[in-house]
UniProtKB/TrEMBL annotation:
<dbReference type="Pfam" id="PF08859">
    <property type="entry name" value="DGC"/>
</dbReference>
<dbReference type="InterPro" id="IPR014958">
    <property type="entry name" value="DGC"/>
</dbReference>
<protein>
    <submittedName>
        <fullName>DGC domain-containing protein</fullName>
    </submittedName>
</protein>
Length: 135
């Protein structure tokens, strides 16, 4: 049963892709900087191999998913592990809305366009965290 004193943040794994790096940075912004007392970060690899702490996170708290691409693997993993997605921020929607192109951006050294995408995605995700906490 979900309680609303915290929100579980589930970034996309996106290993080897810039999308995963961006969603992870957004997750860190939310958990480490903006809402350290009210969020927990779900680790996709840990959840995939049934680490109990991450299973508990998705069962105890409302889940905000940060999906990086059309595959929406973060959502799929939450559902596969028996969790429920309460809210989602979808990076391609942010890129389209803000007219940001990630062409030529590298995941190893994030450029200005990636940093702008992180900022905008963090803003959208932050509003959703506030809504989930205030239910």
């Amino acid at each position: 049963m979900n309680n609303n004193d915290k929100v579980a943040i589930m970034p996309c794994a996106g290993i080897g892709q810039i999308f995963g790096q961006i969603t992870r940075e957004v997750g860190y912004n939310l958990v480490d900087d903006l809402y350290p007392e009210n969020t927990v970060l779900v680790c996709p690899p840990a959840l995939a191999v049934d680490i109990q702490e991450d299973i508990d996170f998705i069962n105890e708290y409302p889940v905000l998913v940060l999906n990086g691409c059309k595959d929406r693997c973060a959502t799929k993993l939450i559902l596969q592990k028996g969790g429920q997605v309460e809210a989602e921020v979808y990076l391609p929607d942010i890129l389209k809305k803000e007219k940001i192109s990630l062409k030529d951006e590298k995941r190893g050294k994030l450029g200005e366009k990636s940093k702008l995408a992180i900022q905008k995605m963090t803003e959208d995700a932050s509003m959703l965290v506030k809504n989930l906490l205030n239910r």
